[in-house]
Task: structure prediction
Amino acid sequence: MSAQAVGSDAVPDSVMGKVKLMLQAFAEDDELSLAELARRTGLPKSTAFRLCHELVAGGLLERWGASYRLGLWLWEIGQQVPRQRILREAALPFMEDLFVATQETVHLAIRDGLEVLYIEKLVGHRPVAQPSRIAGRLPLHCTATGKIMLAYSSQQLLLQVIADGLTGRTPHTVMTPMALGLQLERIRRDGLAVETEETRAGYSSMAAPVLGARRTVVAALSITMPTPRLNMNRLSSPLRSAAAGLSRELGRGSG
Result:
């Protein structure tokens, strides 16, 4: 969700709705001023100030100089979300093996609505300067992880993504239903998704599906690197192995 999309023409009447707007305003930024919070949420500055005061008192926000940041309590309670915690704990050994084998940035992502939600990320001493982050979101249609989830999900999900609009992030982003459909056919055939500079110029990603009970896709593992280091022969085998190992682990856990 982009920072510009947080607010809406109709500001919620309920306190909970206003609080949700306030927290969503931080989707792309670590800290925001009171004026920026009011602008992004569409709330009067006086209302935003009152809510900030209450959220700071409750631990959901914290003061940072003249600005605000998300509070530590949100992180604490977020670690208790079962879906994220169980999957992340199962995935970390396989992600570490994949990082050692490739020395590239490794991501674990799930689908939330029409977006990819990143729940873990491993980087080394040469981190990838690209827009992903833990708890960050990106569109399904232009990310390797999102393409994997689209390829292994229902046709209805693909139609929803197309109806929502195939917006371009770079000149290389796939922006037509036909081109996206051809990509998904190739992904189902190969068992891997490759995205070349569709999300950020100069960087590419490769992803494999993580399957749970009944062989349905529950997540995706990916590696991201500068495009010159995209080497299928070097990277595809360890990526497949890590995703298959995590899938087996999840299968045992559901048995």
Remarks:
- Residues 158 and 216 are 16 Å apart (CA to CA).
- The first strand starts at residue 31 and ends at 33.
- The two ends are 36 Å apart (CA to CA).
